[in-house]
TrEMBL record:
It comes from the Bacteria. Keywords: Hydrolase. Pfam families: Sortase (PF04203). This is Sortase family protein. CDD domains: Sortase_F. It comes from Geodermatophilus obscurus. One of its GO terms (molecular function) is hydrolase activity. InterPro entries: Sortase, Sortase_dom-sf, Sortase_F.
Length: 216
């Protein structure tokens, strides 16, 4: 398990829009309807701040999910086209309901209360784009294109293989929550980091880069 990232005094949180309270009610209704299935619905809430040696948190912040099937968890993510080969740390929610950032810029993280990569549903991996000392684990994420391969090694000895569908960039205040976290009928993967212009005063990137991939 990873140690939750701590927010530095005065450091801003990423500008993700909080859901209305009605969203939680709708979420419970949808999950009730999907109780016999495998779908997962996740909502966006305000983000957490980065660790002291990294840029602002790269991933989205989420609420609600389901545990991975049969205790299988992802151990490592490899993206040959951009030279990524990283262990995965577990990411949870802090006391404010915000997604913990990876503890450092070199490792990607997996939202451990959501589907595991290779299970049915949209698994989410997040990582920093850079830090004060240079590029971080997902620095080249925006260079991916349709057809590129993403490999996730799992604790049961299998490797979940995904093929990139598309790469998108969205303002943080218009994050595509439904597209990223909405239920899917098959195993899919999202890789998320920061992108766009960097606001030095706010210490925050304007956008999120999101890679959509599905099981190969």
């Amino acid at each position: 398990m990873t140690v939750p990232a701590r927010r530095r005094a005065g450091a801003p949180r990423p500008r993700h829009r909080a859901p209305r309270r009605q969203g939680a009610v709708l979420l419970r209704l949808v999950l009730a309807l999907l109780a016999a299935g495998t779908g997962t619905v996740v909502l966006l809430v305000p983000g957490s701040a980065p660790p002291a040696d990294a840029a602002p948190a790269s991933g989205p912040v989420v609420l609600a999910a389901r545990p991975p099937a049969a205790g299988v968890v992802p151990l490592r993510v490899r993206v040959p086209a951009i030279g990524v080969d990283s262990g995965l740390v577990d990411l949870g929610l802090d006391a404010a309901g915000a997604l913990e950032a990876p503890a450092g810029p070199a490792l990607a993280g997996w939202y451990a209360q959501g589907p595991a990569p290779g299970d049915v549903g949209p698994a989410v991996l997040a990582g920093h784009v850079d830090s004060r000392v240079g590029p971080a684990v997902f620095f080249r994420l925006q260079e991916l294109s349709a057809g590129d391969e993403v490999l996730v090694d799992r604790s049961d000895g299998t490797t979940a293989r995904f093929t990139v569908d598309r790469v998108e960039r969205h303002p943080k205040d218009a994050f595509p929550t439904d597209a990223v976290y909405g239920p899917t009928a098959d195993a899919q993967l999202r890789l998320v980091t920061c992108g766009g212009d960097f606001d030095r005063a706010a210490r925050s990137y304007a956008d999120n880069v999101v890679v959509f991939a599905r099981a190969a």
